[in-house]
């Protein structure tokens, strides 16, 4: 039996390392950046100061954008501004990202999302929410807790736990994972129409994980747009991507059916 001791010790060591370092494997904070057309709006939340990149426009309509785990949200300002000219835009730098203070965690980002929404909706009563990849988990949670005009989910997943299971098949991720982003458990509480944008060749989020989230919403609530030949990080290059977002957010129906 002694020949099993070394592999068991190594396996347990790997599990301990993954447990200790997991947040550095989930979150990849970006440096502070800016866009010529956006204003930095500092917002206090839970003792931290968040840098929100904002384009303020007159009128009741606004969009809050939550990006991916390594995304510089400033890179989206010009494209979103052109796609949604009648919306004010609020792009979120998570805790630890883009000059925001603190360190990211699921609980922290969820709390921040509620604070951001309350700030924005006080100024724009027709507020939509958009989340990409990791940001989809935050967006679903927010839409389940606050009134939302429309919800856009780009390359989303049903549960970070389920995604991790498919990428780390030999590890007990159910026991190890701290931040789980169980979007499918919040879906039934979302009252807004939903657009799900899927990259046909997504190599990060398995298609089954996006479909499981779609299936968690009530029937008739979700519109799906599959961007052909797009990969997880190349979605922006496809003109169909923002065209689908614009058609849904700016010109789409206000309720069901979709």
CATH-level-2 architecture? 3-Layer(aba) Sandwich
Integer count of domains = 1
Task: Name the helix and strand elements from N-terminus to C-terminus, one letter apiece.
Answer: HEEEHEHEHEHHHEHEH
The average pLDDT score comes to 93
Number of strands: 8
- What is the percent of helical residues? 25-40%
Q: Which oligomeric state applies?
A: single chain
What does this structure look like?
With 258 residues, this protein is of the alpha/beta class. It has one domain: Alpha/Beta hydrolase fold, catalytic domain (Rossmann fold). Helix content is 38%, strand content 19%. It has 9 helices and 8 strands. It has helices spanning 2-26, 77-83, 106-121, 134-145, 160-167, 173-176, 183-186, 207-216, 239-249, and strands at residues 39-45, 48-55, 61-66, 88-92, 126-132, 151-154, 194-199, 222-227. An 8-stranded mixed sheet has the order 1-2-4-3-5-6-7-8, sandwiched between helices. Helix 8 links the parallel strand 7 and strand 8 (222-227). Helix 3 packs across helix 4. The longest helix is centred in the N-terminal third of the chain and has 25 residues, at 2-26. The termini are far apart. The model is unreliable at 252-258 (pLDDT under 50).
């Amino acid at each position: 039996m002694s020949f099993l001791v070394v592999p068991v010790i190594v396996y347990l060591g790997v599990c301990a390392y993954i447990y200790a370092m997991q947040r550095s494997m989930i979150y990849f904070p970006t440096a502070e950046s800016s866009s010529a057309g956006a204003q930095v709006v500092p917002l206090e939340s839970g003792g931290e100061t968040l840098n929100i990149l904002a384009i303020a426009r007159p009128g009741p309509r606004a969009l809050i954008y939550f990006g991916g785990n390594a995304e510089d949200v400033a890179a989206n300002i010009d494209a979103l501004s052109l796609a949604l000219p009648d919306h004010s835009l609020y792009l979120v730098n998570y805790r630890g990202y883009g000059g925001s203070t603190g360190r990211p965690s699921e609980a922290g980002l969820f709390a921040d999302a509620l604070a951001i929404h309350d700030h924005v909706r006080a100024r724009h009563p027709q507020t939509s929410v958009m989340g990409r990849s990791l940001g989809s988990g935050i967006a679903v949670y927010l839409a389940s807790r606050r009134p939302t005009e429309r919800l856009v989910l780009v390359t989303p997943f049903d549960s970070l736990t389920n995604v991790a299971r498919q990428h780390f098949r030999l590890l007990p991720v159910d026991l190890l994972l701290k931040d789980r982003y169980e979007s499918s458990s919040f879906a039934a509480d979302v009252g807004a129409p939903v657009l799900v944008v899927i990259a046909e060749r997504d190599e990060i989020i398995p298609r089954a994980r996006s479909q499981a989230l779609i299936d968690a919403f009530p029937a008739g609530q979700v519109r799906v747009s599959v961007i052909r030949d797009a990969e997880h990080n190349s979605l922006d290059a496809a003109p169909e991507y923002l065209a689908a977002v614009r058609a849904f957010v700016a010109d789409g129906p206000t309720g069901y059916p979709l």
